[in-house]
Each structure stands twice: as structure tokens, then as C-alpha cells.
Amino acid sequence: MNKENASKLWKMIQEAGDYLLNELPDHPNHPKGRNPYAHVALCVKEKFGNSRYTNTITGISINFYNFFVFMFAVSYHWETEILTAILIFNALMYSSIYFVLNKTKK
């Protein structure tokens, strides 16, 4: 999320939290009163999903890709041309994926 959208979202959370101020019911886990801003932020997070699993799957995918590339590179550790090609291929692959994902993010 870019800074502009993050500030817009935070402003909406603040407005909703102001509306809920002193409106949330008491709860034993919150002896000093409930935080309406945290409540709204939690509701937004629950509504739009938790990216923890997405991040985990992405991390595992990247690790598997790197594992296979490293295993291939180790098999040809004496071939400078192949290692250079692997390096260039990976740099292009990571850069192109970054630019595609960065475009779709906006």
C-alpha cells in the first residue's frame, strides 16, 4: 500500500474510531476501556483478509525456486558461462516479477 492510500485508510479508521468512542461494550480483557481505533483496524484486517498465509506461501515458493537454482548452479560450479547466465537470468526474472507486481499493486 502506498503512503497516500495508507494515510486515507488511517483517516477513515480515525473517523470510525471517533464515532465508536465510548460506544463499545465493556470487556474483562480491557479494564481501562476498549480502544475503538484498534477495533476498527482489526475489523478492516478481518474483512480484507490476513496476508500471513499469502506471505508464507510466497516465501516457500521463493525458497524452493532458490533451492533448485542453487542446486543447478552447484552442479556446474566450474562453468563460468553457465553461472553468469544463471545470474543474469535470475536478475531479469526477479526484476520483471517485481515490475509486474508493482504495476498491479497500484
Please describe what this structure looks like:
By secondary structure, this protein is an all-alpha fold. The protein folds into two domains: 3-48, no CATH class; 60-105. Helix content is 76%, strand content 0%. The radius of gyration is 23 Å and the shape is elongated. It starts with a helix and ends with a helix. The mean pLDDT is 81.
Q: Can you tell me the residue ranges where pLDDT is under 50 for at least 5 consecutive residues?
A: none
Give the helix/strand class: mainly alpha
Residue share in β-strands: under 5%
Major sheet details: none
What is the 3D form? elongated
Radius of gyration: 23 Å
Short description:
By secondary structure, this protein is mainly alpha-helical.
Summarize this structure as a short list of keywords or feature phrases:
106 residues, mainly alpha, 2 domains, 4 helices
